[in-house]
Structure formats: structure tokens, C-alpha cells
Amino acid sequence: MPPSGMETPFVFYASSHISELTGLRASTLGQLLELIKDVPGASIYHHTHRFLQQHQYLSPEPPNDFSYWVADCLGDVELGEKLASIDTMQFLTIRALREKITVTIEKHLEADPLAKMRFARAGEEFHFIKSISFVFPTNYAAHDLDEFVQALKKVTIDSIYFHIFEARLRLEKPVNDFSNWIGSAIGDKHLADKISRLDPYTHTLEDLRNKIVYLIQKRDS
Amino acid sequence: MIKIDDYAPIVGQSIIDEIRMLAAKMAGRRVQHINSTAVGGGVAEILNRMVPLLNEVGVNAAWDLIKGGENFYSVTKKFHNALHGRQEAIDRRDFDIFMETSRENIAKLDTSSDIVFVHDPQPIALVEKKKGNKWLWRCHIDVSNPNLKVWDFLMDFIVKYDSAVFSAPAFSQRLPIRQFLISPSIDPLSDKNKELAQEVIDGVLRKYEIVRDKPIITQISRFDYLKDPLGVIEAYSQVKRYIDCQLILAGGTASDDPEGRKVLDEVMEKAGSDKDIHILLLPQNDIEVNALQRASDIIIQKSIKEGFGLTVAEALWKAKPVVASNVGGISLQIKHKYSGLLCHSIEGAAFAIKQLLHSPEYAKKLGENGREHIKNNFLLTRHIKEYILLFLSLYHPEDVVNL
User: Are A134 and B401 inside 8 Å of each other by CB?
Assistant: First the structure.
């Protein structure tokens, strides 16, 4: 697993994903809500993060499948906006994120009972999918920040994705792997903090790479 | 012979390295693909390229075929249509014919590989031979609204597999086995998708007497009601009232398909004497398809029903703005207003075409986004990677797998 101590070099990991179908589908907001409460965490993760990898060239981008479907297929733009603006960075676990999505929809339904009446057209139902992750080490490792920045320039965006998003939310670490290593192994808490304050959900993965490289290189100047 | 490293300049060396790394986790295991035909059709096309590449990266992969007579394939054709939701008269005798040939194949085929990967319904009954190894069933067709008589018959076999694979979320059903979503792919190095020199494109236009003096709108599809070529002409006519443009409808020859001939006749009649409508009966010529797509300003795919619709991926790969119906797997390829425009009607298609012709910068951006989307998600390299992950998933039931 990724580093945890001073003596450990930072080993860059990456993850590859495959989508597992659940056969569960929703045509209305009510059905969507019930299934969001019930589906595995791997499905909530998929629908809140799939866009980041599949559409990583777009920025700003629709942050999650729920908001996209609610706005585009149900025509509920108001709820779509509410779901899109959920600040995923504020949640440390999938459980907490699921709870926030659930409450957001429930409140909307209370305020606007007619929202229940909206139906997706045939063929535009919401299909629940799970994300299955395969995590593996890459050939890149770093013992200091210079090596780190060189490796960071070369690793795939899947590796950046893994350390920034997946390790934090899916493996329930309080901070992303880069900040954790820079703060603990290198001892540069200021830099670690700067990186952890980047909102990765509003950058493309390439932007994120460039931004982190810039922050590390800027500390020398 | 194309090598996996030939894809590196397109997708990046790191993707190739990742495929090799994942393939190494399959060391010592044999994979056997089984389908019903070596040539013709999308499955054979993909396996022809996929199997050698899998072997090259280190996955021991073989490809075997089942055998069947005319009666068997008449029945499986009926199954195919019925699974697509079409009305078919299917009786006990059809199932008997299917089982008789299946039993012959069960007796003859060696299925002792570690993973047996069965494609489509024709060889599905081979799973009766399962003995402690892993079995995958890959469904390439749209089963979102299947004929239940056929689907229930197939279900007796499907449940014996370890996992099933579908091309679009809408095709999934509630099943007692794991099911995965793996989309088909296009090969960026094939004749249909590779880069072409401008003179090749110009040569094809000259051959078909098409002059690029006004915007070209193109639909590449066989002449079939489900591809709605008449609707395409209607949409073009609505656009033409405001913008001078030309339309190319190009598809395969229809000589062996009585319905195709009928559709073609209706298309010719509807086109009338409009010299800006080019109806091209293309022989199987991938370079010409490639050239026509590249010469076009807008690609349209106004299908009424679609399995996956890889012509959309082909067009987006060429960075063309695409207007397409929101059916089948098309919505996986186009996010409305991000990587193309989706429509639900002739009027909607006409409106979208006008929008794109009036806003070339917007059209260009959609095309560029579309190309990136295809590069990230619908190229053969992604397909190979996901197949390897699928194989690995057979030995790892968990949601997060540490390799």
C-alpha cells in the first residue's frame, strides 16, 4: 500500500476500473432516492466519480451522474444544481456522501412534491453501476521531493486519480496520499497543506498534475 | 501485423505499460474465446485483432468456433431478432434444433481452458460442459426488451456462467450472476479509422463526384428502416431551407437483403432530383468510409434503434461534430452538448444541424471533446485492458482489488 512512514519512499500506485452492472434502474426521483439509499457504496462512488475519469478533459464538468440525470432526463434543473454543488471534498466517507445526496433529494421532494411526478423517457432510465477498482504499484517511486516531482510528471493520470481521489474517499484516508507523504515523510507541512486545499473536483487531472508540480517547484524559488 | 506498441503514439506509452502489467497477473492461465464465425460481423472483427494482441502482451488466448448447419443458423438468426424485440414465430422445434447442434459442439469442443469466454447466444449451451473452470458469457446484442420466450430459454444457460458482459447499461437484466459493462471499441489503426492523406480523401470525393463547395452532412449506415434514412433526408430538407448544404447517405450494398432494396428505392424516390443528395452504395471499402467521414462537416446517426452505434465513435474519433439519436449505446458516446448533440426527432435533428452549421466554433469544440472521449473510452486498448480486468475479476470477488 502507499507510504505511511518517514523511512518509506513514496511508491506511486494506480488503479484501473471496470464497471459492474447491478440491473437496478430508476425512472422517477422517488425510485432514484430509494435505490441511492440501498445500493452498495461502490455504486455511489461510481456515480460521483465516473465523470472525473471518463470526461477528464472537460472542466468545468458535470460532477456526478445523479445531477446530470436529474437535470437532463427528469428536467429538474433546480435539484440538478443542488446535487452538482455538493462539495465532495467535505466528505471523508462514501457513507457520509450518500447521506448528503439522500438528504438533498428528500428536502427537495418535501419542498416540491410535484417533483415526484417527473418521469424519465423510456430508454433514459438511471442505471446503477458499481465501480470495481484494481489497485497496483507503478514503476515510479520517490525518496525526496525532486524525485517526487520528476515521477509526478511521468505517471499516468490514473495514478494521480488514485492518490488524490480514490485513496482519500474510497479507502477512507483523512487526506490525499501526496499531502500525507509530503507532510509526514518530508516534513513540509506547509506544502502538504497547500496541496490538500486544492479542490480536485474543479480541475481536470492534467491541470491537477501541473498545479501540484508548480506548488512543489515554487517552494524552491 | 499490428503490434501493441503501435498504439503507444495514440494512447500513450503508460497505457501500454499498464496493459502489460495487468496481463502479467494472468500468467499461467489460458483464455479461450468461442463464437460462431471467423469472418463477418463485429465480434469476429474485434477478435481477429484482439486475440493476437492479447497473446503479445502475455495473455495466453485462443479462439475457437462452434459448427452448425443451415437450420441451426436460421434458428439463431430468429433468436437474434427476437432478442432485439422483433416479433418472431419460435416453436419447440426451433429449440430442439438449437439443442441438437449444441450437443454436437459440446461433444467435439475442448473447453478445458482456465477461462472460457463465450460470445453471443449461438454457443451459449456449451456451458453445460463447465467443470470447475471459469465461464464468461459476452452478449453483444441489445437485450433491453427481449422476447421472453427466447430470453427465458437462454436464462437456463446464463445462470451457469460465472459472469455476463453487456455493451450498455440498458441491456442489463436482474441476474443471479455478476454482470459487467464493457463497451465495444474501434481500432484507431484500422483502414476505417487511420489517418488519411488529403489526396486520398479528395480522390474518394472525385470518384463519387462530390464537390466541397457547400457543407457536407453525412450518414454512414446500411439502408435499413432502423437507421431512418428517410428521416435523415427530411431533416436535411428542413436545414436546406436556410443553409445551402449537401447530404451523403452511404451504406453497404443491399443485393442480399430484400428489405434493404425496398428501403433504398424509397430513399431514391424521396431524394428525387436533388443533386445535393448523394446516395452511395458502397462496397465493403473501409478506406472510402473513412474518407467520406473525414470529408464531412457534420456526421448524423439518426437511428431508431441501435445496438451500440460504433459509427458514432468512428466519427468522433475523426473529431467530427455529430448529431445522433439518443438510442442504444449512443448516449455512452455522446454527452449532449459536451461531445455532440443528441436528438429525439427529425425536427430536433434538423435544429441541431442548423445550430452546428451556424456555430462552427461550437461544432469544432464538440468534435474535439468527442475525440478525447473516444480516445479515453472507446479505443481497442481500453477494450483489451477491460477484458484483462474482467478475467482477473473472476478470481477476485471484492470491490477494491489489490493486485
Answer: yes
Phi-psi region of B58 (alpha: psi -120 to 50; beta: other; left: phi over 0): left
B165 and B295 part of one domain: no
Q: In chain A, which residues have their Cβ closer than 8 Å to the Cβ of B17? A: 139
Q: Which of A134, A140, A157, A160 to mutate to test the interface with B (most CBs of B within 10 A)?
A: A134
Interchain proximity B403–A134, CB inside 8 Å: yes
Q: How confident is the model at residue A1 (pLDDT cuts 50, 70, 90)?
A: very low
- Asked if residue A2 has pLDDT above 50, the reply is no
The distance of A189 to chain B (nearest Cα, Å) reads 29
ipTM of the complex: 0.85
Q: What is the pTM of this model?
A: 0.88
> pLDDT per residue over B289-311, tens digit each?
999 999 999 999 999 878 788 89
Whether A156 has its CB under 8 Å from any CB of chain B: the answer is: yes
Which domain, by its residues, includes B124?
4-185+379-393
How many domains does the structure of chain B reveal?
A: 2
CA distance B110 to chain A (A): 29
Q: Which of B145, B106, B98 minimizes the C-alpha distance to B128?
A: B106
Residues of chain A contacting B373 with CB distance shorter than 8 Å: 54-55, 57
Same domain assignment for residues B311 and B223: yes
Together in a domain, B364 and B278? yes
| A-B contacts at Cβ under 8 angstroms | 104
Q: Which whole-number Å values give the CA distances from B233 to B56, B222, B253, B349, in the listed order? A: 46, 15, 19, 11
- pLDDT tens readout for residues B222-257: 888 889 999 999 999 999 999 999 999 998 754 445
Q: Nearest CA to A191 among A166, A220, A168, A152? A: A220
Structural domain contains residue B403? no
